[in-house]
Design brief:
Length: 139
């Protein structure tokens, strides 16, 4: 997303990311993986996630997908090489809800949701090209 942020800027689209964590944990994430050209907010109670209709993947299924992807080589960079990032990911896996899946929601200038994609698994994100197409046709 950050590599193509200028395509959203050209359309005067504000990008906002909401993570299922406390603000302090988001700050730690930004220290290791940032900076980002958009704001990341925390939603530790997952109220926004619940309202969006997101799904929580069963633990066994997510771990099975990760193991299969690692063994077959389909999942690359499962664990970052950089030590600080690696420690952060390991801490996240122990202390955060890594099973809840995300969503992408487009709102118009009046705050009305005009399009939504609910991720069913970690690899099921709406593509940037799809988002830009939806923005150009819906907003």
């Amino acid at each position: 997303m950050r590599e193509r942020v200028e395509e959203f800027d050209k359309r005067t689209i504000q990008l906002v990311v909401i993570a299922p964590s406390k603000g302090s944990f988001v700050s730690q994430f930004l220290d290791e993986f940032g900076p980002f050209p958009f704001t990341i907010y925390g939603d530790p109670a997952r109220e926004g996630y619940k309202q969006a209709g997101t799904v929580t993947m069963p633990k066994w299924k997510l771990l099975g997908k990760a193991l299969f992807g690692f063994v077959t080589g389909k999942v690359k960079n499962f664990m970052p090489d950089e030590q600080g990032q690696k420690k952060f990911v390991q801490k996240s896996m122990k202390t955060q809800d890594v099973y809840i899946q995300g969503a992408t929601i487009l709102f118009n200038e009046k705050g009305k949701a005009v399009w939504k994609h609910i991720d069913q698994s970690p690899e099921d994100h709406a593509s940037i090209d799809t988002l830009l197409e939806k923005i150009d046709t819906k907003l």
